Amino acid sequence: MLLTLYRLRNKTGLQDNFTSVTLPPGTFEVFQEAPNQEVIAKGSFSVQSVSPDTSGQVDKALDLEIVADSSGSTIVGYDIILKFEPDQVEIISATSLLPDFSVFPIERSDHYIVTGAKKLDSDEPSVFANTQILRLTVMPKVTGSLNLKLIDAIDLEKSQMVDNESKILTPQLGEVTLEIE
Q: Considering only CA atoms, which of 119, 115, 133 is closest in space to residue 69?
């Protein structure tokens, strides 16, 4: 958990919001990521338009949903990477569609990363079965075909789910093409 919080803190750039505490030796354990952590190819993430058609207009916001399937695994966290052309679209917002998950979006020059983390006070198991987990609001900038694609990895980031046994699931990934007028 500490490693997860440390990574989350570094991803969001909130290092200045944490206080350092010095503890006497032997009062804590140092946990390191296991070098042979089990990674399983399982599940899926897809992206789809909220409306039944896949068309839109320049400078008019569109809502997209990320749909997840965890193939029966109970999920406690996920990372999603959405690749886009910055001159064609702007990502306005990311909103969790699951009340027991918090989301932490990070926008880069040509991709958008969203980390979803299960709230610590939630006791409900979260098994995704074609579940709408995230809403993205996008603003098209130009006419023509707009392709938004979930990708498996970029730099050190990966699209993945983490189950309640800390196993990493690498899901199949989808994309959507919108026609913008």
A: 133
